[in-house]
Amino acid sequence: MNNIIKSVVFLVFGLTCCLPAYAQQLEKKHFHHNEWTKGRFSEAVTVSGPGKWVFLAGVGAEAEKDGSILHVGDFAAQCKYAYEKIGKVLAAHNGKMSDVVKLVTYVVDIKDRDAMNKCRAEAFKGVELPVHTFLVISQLARPGMLVEMDVIAVVPAK
Fold first, then answer.
1. Which of 95, 75, 93, 94 minimizes the C-alpha distance to 149?
2. What is the crossing angle of helices 113-123 and 75-92, to 10°?
3. 37 phi and psi, to 5 degrees?
4. 27 near 50, Cβ under 8 Å?
5. Per residue of the chain (158 residues), what is the pLDDT tens digit?
6. Cα angle value 101/127/78 (rounded, 5°)
7. pTM for this model (two decimals)
8. Among residues 75, 35, 37, which one has the least CA distance to residue 56?
9. CA atoms within 13 A on the CB side of 13
10. Strand pairing category for 131-136 and 27-31
């Protein structure tokens, strides 16, 4: 009889401890918000658990319909447009700019650093800036791109 009681207590304790952890398992989903990206890469990947992680693929001045580069030669306009797209994709996943936890910015000319800092400050106005890595590289994914950003955000799980 003593062993039965021990077994029942062990079972109840095990279920009490393990079920909440099981309910919080991570779930990963990939999303395409623009037609031209289908089959090329995921624009966003969400990971849900206690919070939902949203991973955005490199975001630049690609037109949402066909991927053509907008604002060729105009760094400030490309940067602003990229942040608008970031905000739009985050909103599609119940997020906002304040949910961004990591940002990597790639540019092709170091001379655009001050313009990038101004653009980033405007995009994150009123919220704390996320961690940020700034890289100057020789070329981006498409000719005419001057700036591209990778974003990681964590939004409240619903």
1. 75
2. 30
3. -85, -15
4. no
5. 555 544 444 444 444 444 444 456 667 788 889 988 887 777 887 877 888 899 999 999 999 999 999 999 999 999 999 999 999 999 999 999 999 999 999 999 999 999 999 999 999 999 888 989 999 999 999 999 999 999 999 998 77
6. 75
7. 0.76
8. 37
9. 6
10. unpaired
The residues near 26 (Cβ < 8 Å, ≥ 6 apart) are 47, 48, 49
**Residues 127, 83, 34, 142: is their CA dihedral positive or negative?**
negative
**DSSP letter (8 states) at residue 139:** -
Q: Cβ of 10: how many Cβ atoms within 10 Å?
A: 10
- Number of Cβ within a 10 Å radius of residue 151: 26
Residues 142, 66 contacting (CB under 8 angstroms): no
